């Protein structure tokens, strides 16, 4: 198994829809793991073009209850791949996602809602 570290920053919560029972948020997702096959001599990291991600193993992370999501691609795909000499890989991307959130509006306007943002990985 590969141990993957992860961090997530919420850049913005763009909309909350009581009618559709969902919310839309833009997030920055960063994942870090070590792949010994990528070790190299040197003391500086390499930043790679995001298009090279197709040539690397990356975690199969997905957003639970996502109705739709997209990666930002203006002017280029908003993905970063940085490889360190010890084979550590930093993979970062910017995602906008619309996530389902079951809301209980019976006490509106004195209600409180709790919407989650869960990430998971497919396990085989």
TrEMBL record:
Family: Belongs to the ligand-gated ion channel (TC 1.A.9) family.
UniProt signal peptide: none
Membrane topology of this protein: Multi-pass membrane protein
Main location: membrane
InterPro entries linked to this entry: Neur_chan_lig-bd, Neur_chan_lig-bd_sf, Neur_channel, Neurotransmitter_ion_chnl_CS
GO cellular component labels: synaptic membrane
Subcellular location: Synaptic cell membrane
Neurotransmitter-gated ion-channel ligand-binding domain boundaries: 1-122
Domain of life: Eukaryota
Pfam families recorded: Neur_chan_LBD
Annotated GO MF terms: extracellular ligand-gated monoatomic ion channel activity; transmembrane signaling receptor activity
Keywords of the record: Ion channel, Ion transport, Membrane, Synapse, Transport
The protein's name: GBRP protein
Regions that span the bilayer: none
Gene behind the chain: Gabrp_1
Organism: Rostratula benghalensis
């Amino acid at each position: 198994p590969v141990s993957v570290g992860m961090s997530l920053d919420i850049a913005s919560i763009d909309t909350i829809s009581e009618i559709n029972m969902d919310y839309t948020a833009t997030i920055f997702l960063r994942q870090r793991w070590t792949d010994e096959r990528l070790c190299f001599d040197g003391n500086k990291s390499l930043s790679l073009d995001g298009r090279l991600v197709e040539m690397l193993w990356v975690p199969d992370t997905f957003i639970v209850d996502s109705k739709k999501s997209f990666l930002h691609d203006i002017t280029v795909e908003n993905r970063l791949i940085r490889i360190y000499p010890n084979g550590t890989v930093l993979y970062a991307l910017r995602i906008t996602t619309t996530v389902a959130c079951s809301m209980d509006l019976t006490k509106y306007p004195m209600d409180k809602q709790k919407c989650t943002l869960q990430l998971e990985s497919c396990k085989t």
